[in-house]
Design brief:
Layout: H1 3-15, H2 23-35, E1 38-42, E2 48-51, H3 53-58, H4 70-81, H5 89-102, E3 107-112, E4 118-124, E5 130-136, H6 145-149, H7 157-175, E6 180-185, E7 190-193, H8 195-203, E8 208-210, E9 214-216, H9 220-234, E10 242-247, E11 256-262, E12 269-274, H10 281-292, H11 296-306, H12 311-317, H13 322-338, H14 346-367
Antiparallel strand pairs: 1-2, 1-5, 3-4, 4-5, 6-7, 6-12, 8-9, 10-11, 11-12
């Protein structure tokens, strides 16, 4: 079975779609389900073959337990909309004829005010099967205002939805890492940020939000340097793609290392990236043991060194002799070097440890 067929089978099972539904329409059904949107599929004879749960709610005056055609749904909609001042039944017959002709097009988009304000996208395949996705204004998270104010929207509804889903997937991916990422304007106003950056700003440990929206440092001189870098990056004036700056933390300890770079996807914006100053020794030790061949004792020793302790301090705390400590450190360096990890100094081991911790600690922190 190909990957495409496997995905289609998953769609069918999740949404209770008939097995004969063409794959492009099954894909649209998935988009509609993510938005809790109305969605209907008709076969080549314009007989209704599928209606989403939201479609049934919106058009509650239609009996979806009975066989329905496109004509049935349109006529029942007109009959129920007359009390609201919509066209009389005689006009609807003419409207039905026009609609049937329009629906012969491969793609068609239009707005509806009844039963609710919504944008409708109609798709017809070459085999005659067709579908409509009906996205309600103010409900889906998709900006639909321009569809009601412009005669010809710049992008199709399905494309707008797909762009939204892509953006959500990218945002979800950023939220799954422990490295803080923020997109800011030239005046340091935060436009977008991931969950890790949210957490860092909430703690105010080196970076904070001033006036609830401006990323800043609690130290004036650090703040001036940060603002200068952001302004230069947002203006495209950085001499290199990205510049790093160290920011002091109110509680002391290692400073935050902040990278500022130009956002090539949006003029007037800069990207601020911050790695967490602390990491989980236990997580790091498990990675060093599993993937780099260190013994449990060596892994614990290396993790403690990476967190700022000296080898002598670690050896003393663990109740080992100085000779044992020196032997373990030599073994750690040798094993990591074999894996192309330069760990012949504490600072290099610490940098590597922070990268590992920022990645491996992310999933755990998101799920805790």
């Amino acid at each position: 079975m190909t990957r495409g067929h496997a995905l289609k089978d998953c769609f069918m099972a999740a949404l209770s779609l008939p097995s004969e539904i063409p794959t492009p329409l099954a894909d649209m059904a998935v988009l509609a389900a993510k938005l809790s949107a109305g969605f209907v599929i008709f076969d080549a004879k314009d007989i209704l073959r599928y209606a989403s749960e939201r479609q049934r709610q919106i058009y509650s005056f239609c009996d979806f337990n009975q066989p329905l055609t496109f004509d049935d749904i349109l006529l029942q909609t007109a009959q129920n909309s007359r009390p609201r001042g919509n066209p009389a039944l005689a006009d609807v017959r003419q409207h039905l004829s026009v609609a049937k002709l329009q629906r012969l097009e491969a793609r068609l988009e239009f707005t509806r005010l009844f039963p609710v304000e919504m944008v409708c996208s109609h798709v017809r395949l070459g085999n005659g099967w067709n579908a409509q996705i009906r996205v309600e204004k103010g409900r889906s998270g998709v900006d639909l205002d321009h569809y009601f104010s412009e005669a010809a929207p710049a992008a199709s509804l399905v494309e707008v939805i797909r762009q939204r889903e892509n953006a959500r997937q990218k945002a979800a991916a950023l939220d799954c890492i422990a490295i803080g990422v923020a997109v800011v304007s030239r005046d340091c106003v935060v436009r977008h940020k991931n969950a890790a950056m949210d957490d860092m700003l909430l703690k105010g440990d080196g970076l904070r939000l001033r006036s609830g929206r401006i990323i800043s440092s609690p130290y004036d001189d650090d703040d001036i340097n940060l603002r200068r870098l952001v302004a230069a990056a947002a203006s495209g004036a950085l001499p290199v793609p990205q510049v790093a700056i160290c920011l002091r933390r109110p509680n002391g300890g290692e400073p935050l290392v902040v990278s500022v770079s130009q956002n090539l996807a949006a003029d007037g914006m800069a990207v601020v990236v911050v790695a967490p100053p602390k990491f989980d020794e236990e997580t790091l030790a498990s990675v060093l043991e599993r993937d780099f061949g260190l013994t449990p004792a060596e892994a614990a020793h290396a993790a403690a060194i990476s967190d700022g302790a000296s080898s002598h301090e670690v050896t003393t705390a663990q109740g080992k002799s100085a000779a044992t400590g020196r032997s373990q450190l030599a073994s750690i360096t040798r094993k990591l070097s074999r894996k192309q990890i330069s760990a012949n100094s504490q600072s290099r081991l610490t940098r590597f440890a922070m990268v590992v911790a920022a990645i491996t600690g992310a999933a755990r922190s998101r799920s805790s």
